[in-house]
Design goal:
There is one protein chain. The chain is of the alpha/beta class. It has two domains: 2-220 and 395-408, Aldehyde Dehydrogenase, Chain A, domain 1; 227-370, Aldehyde Dehydrogenase, Chain A, domain 2. 42% of the residues lie in helices and 19% in strands. The protein contains 14 helices and 16 strands. The protein has helices at residues 2-19, 23-39, 41-57, 62-68, 72-87, 126-137, 151-168, 184-190, 205-214, 237-249, 269-280, 290-295, 323-334, 347-356; strands at 95-100, 106-113, 116-121, 141-145, 175-177, 198-202, 227-231, 258-264, 285-288, 299-301, 315-321, 339-343, 361-364, 384-385, 393-394, 401-408. It has a seven-stranded parallel β-sheet, sandwiched between helices. Strands 5-4-3-6 form a four-stranded parallel β-sheet, with helices on both faces. Helix 5 runs parallel beside helix 6 and helix 13 (323-334) packs parallel to helix 14. The longest helix has 18 residues, at 2-19. The protein is globular. The N and C termini lie far apart (49 Å). The relative contact order is 0.14.
């Protein structure tokens, strides 16, 4: 465990400088890193081409290949995401609450950095840039353990981050790359209690499950993205078709992709057929229950595990439910508390859905693909948290801080 211990100790040694860094310093580091990413776009893409070739040869799944791939647009989007983070209000030192007690004690609750954050992720090179910028802006040090399939892409991006740190006079140990390839280092991170303050995993179900089961360090994560779009009987057919198509087919491999379409049993036949056809005509295979199969003959029978499956591919499940209450019951039974949406013109139905679905993100008349920190105005995110401690939904700047309470007195003693 010496490699991880050494890296974590160096990260902890960097914390005072990060916590004391001015907003201007952090902004400078991030904007320089963004500028370097733009200037070196061709080099980053060339490194990614090598990663992609090796990944294809090794048989990496289409979903992971999609997450690994970079092009000029994605690289520019990464740089733009860093600029957005740099323009956000600095959360460190923000007063959350201020109050006084009758005995004269004065209380102020303020945001402070979490500390050393370990981030374990697969494929997605974009996580490298996003995580570094968010952790830095929130005053944290981070240990980034990307997958070996993205080793060259991540190294190219981390060189840009390192330039930003150096330009701002911040310690290089603030952002460190854990050597890829050696899986024992992941377990070392999970067991670095007292050195790493929190672990944020981002990847497939196998990785997340392993982290959650083995970690002795607190974990902020989601296991599955079994997301639903419910088409209410009151929905506009054109709107429903557009949302359903986008929720599934914009990018099938992202964690915000719809995996199950729910249709109100009271929906008009044209509405139900329009929602289903939107998927079939976009190239999505469908499986469904008996009622769903009666809507469209192109829906195949659903297997026992269909409604509990995160496909991350051009396939979705379809079920017919009895109104909003039936949709909520289905989501409660089969969902993963990630992202669920209703398409409806009836305000009462929509509000009942928003209140009754216990997921991190619940939408009305919008695609589940908006489950993304950038779309929330956060600039970037490290992941989506579906637990009930500390943070829920996109993990961005505020979610990478915790608070402490400052108490000012004038000689009070407790009786």
């Amino acid at each position: 465990m010496s490699v991880i211990h050494d890296m974590a100790r160096a990260a902890r040694a960097a914390l005072p400088a990060l916590a004391g860094a001015s907003t201007a310093q952090k902004i400078h580091a991030i904007t320089v890193a963004a500028a370097r990413i733009r200037v070196r776009s061709a080099d980053i893409i060339a490194a990614n081409v090598q990663d992609m070739a090796a990944a294809r040869a090794s048989g990496l799944s289409p979903a992971l290949l999609d997450r690994l791939a970079l092009d000029a647009g994605r690289v520019q989007a990464m740089a733009q995401g860093l600029d957005v983070v740099a323009a956000l209000p600095d959360p460190v030192g923000t007063v959350i609450k201020h109050w006084q007690q009758p005995n004269g004690l004065d209380f102020t609750r303020v945001r402070v950095p979490l500390g050393v954050i370990g981030i374990i992720y697969e494929s997605r090179p974009g996580v490298t840039a996003d995580a570094a910028a968010l952790c830095l802006m929130a005053g944290n040090a981070c240990l980034l353990r990307g997958g070996s399939e993205a080793a060259l892409s991540n190294a190219a991006l981390l060189a840009c981050i390192a330039d930003g740190l150096a330009a701002a006079g911040l310690p290089a140990a603030a952002v460190q790359q854990v050597p890829p390839g050696d899986r024992t280092l992941v377990d070392d991170m999970l067991n670095a209690h007292g050195l790493i303050d929190i672990i944020i995993p981002r990847g497939g179900k196998g990785l997340i499950a392993h982290v959650q089961q083995q970690a002795r360090v607190p974990v902020l994560a989601h296991l599955d993205g079994i997301n639903h779009v419910y088409v209410d009987a009151s929905a506009n057919a054109v709107m429903a078709a557009g949302i359903v198509r986008n929720a599934k087919m914009r990018r099938t491999a992202v964690c915000g992709a719809m995996e199950t379409l729910l249709i109100d049993a009271h929906a008009a036949p044209d509405l139900a057929r329009a929602a289903v056809a939107a998927l079939v005509e976009a190239g999505c295979a469908l499986v469904g229950d008996a009622a769903a199969m009666r809507i469209d003959s192109r829906i195949a029978p659903a297997g026992d595990a269909a409604f509990d499956t995160e496909y991350l591919d051009a396939i979705a499940s379809v079920a017919v439910v009895d109104g909003v209450s039936g949709a909520i019951a289905h989501i409660t039974r089969h969902g993963s508390a990630h992202t669920d949406a209703i398409v409806a013109e009836n305000t009462a139905a929509a509000e009942a859905f928003l209140a009754g679905v216990d997921s991190a993100i619940v939408l009305w008349n919008a695609s589940t693909q908006f489950a993304d920190g950038g779309e929330f105005g956060f600039g970037a995110e490290i992941g989506i948290a579906t637990g009930r401690l500390h943070a829920r939904g996109p993990v961005a700047l505020e979610e990478l801080t915790i608070y402490k309470t400052l108490v000012r007195g004038n000689g009070q003693v407790r009786s």
